[in-house]
Amino acid sequence: MTNPTFDFNVFIDASKKAFAPAVKFNELAVQGFERVARQQYAFAGELLEIAIRQMQLPTQVKDVNELASKQVELATQFVEKTTQRSQDLIKLATEQQAELTKWYDKAAADVAAVAKKAA
Fold it and tell me: How far apart are CA 77 and CA 74, in angstroms?
């Protein structure tokens, strides 16, 4: 009785093909997380800068009116940066959603093609 040899390359190729959508999803998730984390890190740096400048203000002004004026100026800068960061986060979320939708549509089409071929 002869035993046919098992071709492990076929098994490895089938495994790669089966897990390819999951690997791509993981890549997209990590990419999205990294982009948001980098943006939040940059925003934290901007917050630190504004906080330091606000703590330095009382030592740099001559009277209360100038202090109030400088605080309004810093607050305006903070609001502008926060608004820009919010818009950037919305843009990142929209881009990530588009990428995930494209991935899902491709994965669904691949599965449908395999199912149609098998039927």
Answer: 5
